[in-house]
């Protein structure tokens, strides 16, 4: 049997770079969740599925957030600058997901 190999998605790489930049800069961010909740804090760490958000770097009880529930991540306050990954490492074109519509009969 042949095993199917999944193609890597450029959007996943871009998301990983963005969370890595937030984690490295230690700038406070606002994480907007899909249920309308807003969480404020510093991105301590992230992996493929989860995000660790704390009030500061030495927070003893950080919040674990699943990435699938995150809708938007914005800098907190006017002093927080937008973190953009390097142009060399980010892809030039990121495909947007367009849902297929069913044909009506």
TrEMBL record:
SUPFAM superfamilies: Sm-like ribonucleoproteins (SSF50182). It holds the Pfam family Hfq. InterPro entries: Hfq (IPR005001), LSM_dom_sf (IPR010920). It comes from the Bacteria. This is RNA-binding protein Hfq. It comes from Cupriavidus pampae. The gene is hfq_2.
């Amino acid at each position: 049997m042949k095993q199917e190999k999944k193609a890597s998605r450029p959007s996943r790489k871009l998301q990983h770079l963005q969370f890595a930049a937030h984690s490295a800069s230690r700038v406070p961010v606002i994480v907007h969740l899909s249920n309308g909740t807003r969480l404020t804090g510093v991105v301590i760490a992230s992996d493929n599925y989860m995000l660790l958000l704390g009030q500061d770097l030495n927070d003893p009880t950080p919040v674990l957030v699943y990435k699938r529930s995150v809708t938007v991540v914005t800098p907190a306050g006017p002093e927080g600058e937008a973190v953009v990954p390097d142009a060399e490492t980010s892809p030039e074109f990121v495909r947007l997901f367009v849902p297929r519509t069913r044909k009506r009969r």
